[in-house]
Structure formats: C-alpha cells, structure tokens
Fold this protein.
Amino acid sequence: MAQEKKYRLGELEFNTEQEYRDAAMDLKRIKGIVDKYDPEDPEQAKRILASIHAHPETFRSPYGRKFKEKLEAAARRGMSSAAAGRTARAGQPVAEEKTLQGAKRRPFGGFGKHGQSGADKAAKKERAAARAGRRTNPDGSEKEKFQIFTPKNFAIGVVIVACVVIFSILSPRFFKLNSSGDSNGDIRRNMVTAYAKSQAELKMQLYTYYFNVVGQTEEEAQKDAEEGLGHYVMDLSDRTVSTMTDSEISDIYSRLVEGGDIQNNSFVEPAEITVLKDKLVAAGLSGNTGNGVEGETAVMAAVNNMMAYQQRVFSSLCYGYSLLGNSDENAREYASEDMNAMFGEVIFEYKLGEEDKQSYFDSFVKRGLIKDSQVVRFSADPTAYNLPELTPAIEVSIRGGESKAYQCSMISYAPAASVFYEIHKGKQKGYLCFRNNGGNTDYIQLGDNTVTAQGDFFMLAGSELTTGKWFYNNQNIGILMNGDTSSLISYVHDLNY
C-alpha cells in the first residue's frame, strides 16, 4: 500500500494539501502584521484583535490560532496594568478621605470654644458674607464686590455672540468645500473598489489562460485561477464593494495594509502574480478577458476576438521576418503562409456581417480554435509544436567549421508556425528562424536513417545570412545546406546566464 503523502511547514505536519495551504497563507498574513505592528504592545494587540474578530475567517490554521492567542495574552497584560494603575491612583484619595473622617471624630483638643477651631469660624464667616453679597479678606475686612454686568464685560459678550453667529453661517459652506472625494473614507473605498475590480479582471484572464491555453477542464481552470488570487492577502474578485458599509471598507483596507498589498495608498503586487501575468502576456491574453462588448452576441464576440488575435500574430510574424532582412512584401508573404498553416482561414483584414461571422465561428469551432465561445490561443511553448526551445545559450557550427557560442532568447509571440530567436556574441547581434509551415515533405538521409525536415532555417549573423532546412539529430538540431548535413546547433546548459 502506497504511503500517504504528508505536507510539512516548519514544525507542523499536515494531512492534506488544503491544510498546508491554509497554514502558508496564515504565515504570510502574520508576517505582514508583524512587519507593521508590534504584537507585544497591548494597545496595538487590541487593534489587531478587533480586526480579526470582525473577520473570523482571517486565520484557518494552528499558526494563526497560536498568533491570536499571543495577541490575546498581550491585550490581557495591558488590561492588568491599567487596572493596577487605577488602584494605585485611587488609593491616595481614599486615604485622605479616611483621615478627614477620623479628624471629625477626634476630641476637642486643638479646637476653639464649643469645638470649633479658628479656621472653621473664619470659613463660616466667609460663607455668611458670601450669602450677603460680600467677600472678606483674611484679616476680616470686606472685599470689593465683584460686578458681572460691567460695560467692558458687555462689549466682550457682544463680540463673542457675533463670532458665534458668523461661524454658524460660514461653517456649513466651509465643511462642504472640504468634504470632497479626497476624504480618508472615500480614498479607502476607492482603493478597495479598484483592488476588487483589478482582481475580477485578473481572475477572468487566468481562467481563460488555464482553460484555453493550458487546456484544463472548467473545474481545474476555475480552481487554479482562484489559487492564483490566493497569493493576495484577500480575494475580493467576487465581492460587491458598492454594498459594503464604511466600517466594512475600513476593516478590509486595514487588512490589505497590514498584509502589505497596499502601501502608501499604492498596490503592491505579489511576486507570484507578476509571474502569472508574464505568462498571460506570452499567451497573448494581457488585457483581454475574452468577453465581448455590450450588445455583442457570444458568436460576434468570439469572432471579433479571433480577428484581433490573428492581427497580433500576423504583426509579430512580419516583424520577425523583417529582422532577417526581408522586404515588407516578402515578410508579409512568409507571414501569410504561416497564418494559413496555423488558422486555416485568415479573416483579420475582412469586414464581416453577422452571417459571415456565424459561418467563420462554426468553422473555427470545428478546427478546435474556438471552444465555448472563447478563442483557443496557441501555446507560447515552442516544444509543443516540435519546434526547438534554445534558451539560454547555444553553440552553432556551420559546414563543420569552428563552433561559436551565442546567448539566445526567444522573441516569438506565437511560435506555432515559426519561432524566432535573438542571438548575441559579445557586441555581435543576430537572429535565428525555424519555420514549420505544415508541409514536412522533405526527407534527409543520415547514414542508415531517414529523418523529416521540419521546415526552413534562417540565420543572420552580422551581415551574413545562412539558409537551409532544419531537422532533429539526437540532442542537436541538424542543418541541411545544399546536401551538406555537417552544420549543427547544440544546446548549452549555461546556468550562469
């Protein structure tokens, strides 16, 4: 019986991949919080706990629960310190009160006649004088009577009333002018709205990539698209921000800041998302969700997307052939041959009516180029079409001569019919092109073996253009030039490149 797979993360062991992913996500969230706050500080611990309590789904693993317990312990320490402080502060007045009460119960010693001291008599005289509208000095003489309604006080009152009236008139206008969309609440809502909208668009692009390019099932594509968004602190792609309260927006904004997805009111994209977006660009999906514009039927949207895709592929092919020194006319001719081999029907230059679009839609569906009203784009991997993938370095030997090493990088947009590479050797720069236009009618005899020539080969190094047929020869790519098969291209595993 096969041993059940275990997942480990630090000292913890998990039985399922989901438990492992939950723990990894909790660790990321904890790191984002610790980088910004001090969990040992009681006040900061309270604020973090308040956010966690408002969103119970924040942590889903033992790591998260241990971190929450640590926050709760810090918060309790703060409450204990505050209670001790209140007890210490309250102790002094209570002692003073008891002292006074004890003094009242003491015998008459130290007091004047009938148990009253001289100070009590003076206080009693002062209270009597106050009731009579008089004030007395310590020596018993009468103080000057205090007058409230004097001309000076009346003038001051008039000025105060006037200021209050003016402020009551102008303040609504002042606050109206300063309550624009730049308030903190509006900024937070706008940031969260933009964040959710961006995620929704990215999720659709990722789904299209996994479904149409990678060839996954709908369930697999949906799962991988959601997993991709899981690299963010929160997945808001399916949430309606416009219906959220200000409190909910504030909590979400705080979590995005704590997790590091928002810094200085700017989005910080996780590295894993950047990698996924590079794949979308390579597959021709950048900025294209696969959806049509308002008013289009699914058929019209699919055919319009196919026309736009064909236009991009054709432009890329023309550019590649122009790098080899071909004229615009020859470059377009080569590119047109490739396009016919790839698509069967090239329609990007046509003006089509609805009936024409329906006809082409049915044709592309039969060819497998449109599936579920989505364009099935060609893979960005040249090996998927039996074409060489030569990065990062190669050695080229022409007609059995001394081999030269080149750094090599693919520059093709869709290598299904032809793949282009840029090569470097010091300051020297050149280009390679391997064509596979679907003919495959030429055969090459190599000793006792017969191999199929995949297509045309072009190499431009400096001002010298080399042409021939290319084929596979074990680990190398062989070049047939006027019956000579001694020219080779070898892979180089340059790990320092």
In short: DSSP finds twelve helices and 18 strands in the chain. Residues 93-117, 171-182, 289-294 have pLDDT under 50 and may be disordered.
